[in-house]
């Protein structure tokens, strides 16, 4: 299997566009908002920094549009990594940024991650850029609703402050090889 650097020697990231409609992405946002309002037992919040939980995990997917999105994510990752999608595991979480929120600098190479990604569901103007850090420079990527950004899990990254007057919602993902028993 090729490494991410072999696949993308000229860039730290690759951008893909979701096949889901804006209405479908909005419906996923609404689904999460309902779960948060109910303080549903289907969610788990972690990574409490700067007065917010950076990660919101779903224990089960009870939404067809979200299931379709996750399947699309895995297919994209499999194509990038030149692997069969059935061989990939995925971990994912929602990142809900209210006005004034940031996401702190971090990496995703804790375990056996091969690829990391983010998909943007709701992106108001001035709601924060994804910052990929290298030893030589910071690459600031403006999020676009319906766009994926795939990158190496070893890449330090953060999200700048949400300066809009409403929330921004994305889904972060990590992909690894399934452990066969």
Task: Provide an overview of this structure.
The structure is a single chain. By secondary structure, this protein is of the alpha+beta class. The protein has a single domain, classed as Sandwich (Jelly Rolls). It has three helices and eleven strands; from the N terminus they run αβαββαββββββββ. The chain has helices at residues 4-7, 22-38, 64-81; strands at residues 13-17, 43-49, 52-58, 88-97, 103-106, 115-122, 130-133, 138-141, 147-151, 157-159, 168-177. The strands form three sheets. It has a five-stranded antiparallel β-sheet. A four-stranded antiparallel β-sheet has the order 5-10-7-8, with no helix packed on it. A two-stranded antiparallel ribbon has the order 2-3. The radius of gyration is 16 Å and the shape is globular.
């Amino acid at each position: 299997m090729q490494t991410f650097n072999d696949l993308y020697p000229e860039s730290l990231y690759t951008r893909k566009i979701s096949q889901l409609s804006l209405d479908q992405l909005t419906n996923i946002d609404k689904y999460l908002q309902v779960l948060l309002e109910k303080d549903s037992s289907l969610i788990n919040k972690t990574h409490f920094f700067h007065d917010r939980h950076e990660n919101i995990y779903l224990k089960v997917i009870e939404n067809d549009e979200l299931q379709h999105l996750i399947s699309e994510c895995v297919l994209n990752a499999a194509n990038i990594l030149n692997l069969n999608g059935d061989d990939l595991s995925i971990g994912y979480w929602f990142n809900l940024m209210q006005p004034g929120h940031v996401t702190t600098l971090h990496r995703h190479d804790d375990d056996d991650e091969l690829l990391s990604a983010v998909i943007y569901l709701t992106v108001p103007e001035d709601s924060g850029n994804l910052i990929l850090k290298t030893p030589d420079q910071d690459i600031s990527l403006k999020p676009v609703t319906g766009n994926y950004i795939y990158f190496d899990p070893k890449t330090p990254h953060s999200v700048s402050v949400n300066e809009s007057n409403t929330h921004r919602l994305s889904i972060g993902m990590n992909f690894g090889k399934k452990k066969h028993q």
